[in-house]
Amino acid sequence: MEWIPVGKVLSTQGVRGEVKFHYYNEAKEDVLHYASLFVGKVGEKSEIRPAHVRFQNGFVFIRFKGIESLDEVSFLVGQELYVRERDLISLEEGEYYEYQLIGLDVVDMKDNKIGVVESVLHTGANDVLVIGGNDTPMVPLVEGFVIEVNVRGGYVRVDGEAIGL
Question: How confident is the model at residue 92 (pLDDT cuts 50, 70, 90)?
């Protein structure tokens, strides 16, 4: 079973066991789709079920069933929360999840391989692809730099000139 990180618990909120949660998806309301979230290491995931979800200032605040105090919820601070891959919301054609980018080849306009996507950095302005390889620049995940994302084809096409190659 594949576990997909969907966000990170930033802090506790109040005394009734609520947490401030940074949901990775842009559509914050999509978190309502998940009846269960999971926490823990590979092979040792524990299920936690949202009891109440609210939205404020771009963050998601969640209270979980059976967790009713600050002391009980504090173990979640700093933890990523996961869903099962099969529980992910279906995407439209041309859309993709961040985890699907990891491991894709990065190619230029002439199909020359530049490197491989190692991770995605979340900055204030836009997301950035971290490309593995010697002296390979990071690539802003925005139109003009990224020309095409083809998950099925296994590549991300970038404008080499725009990124200084």
Answer: confident
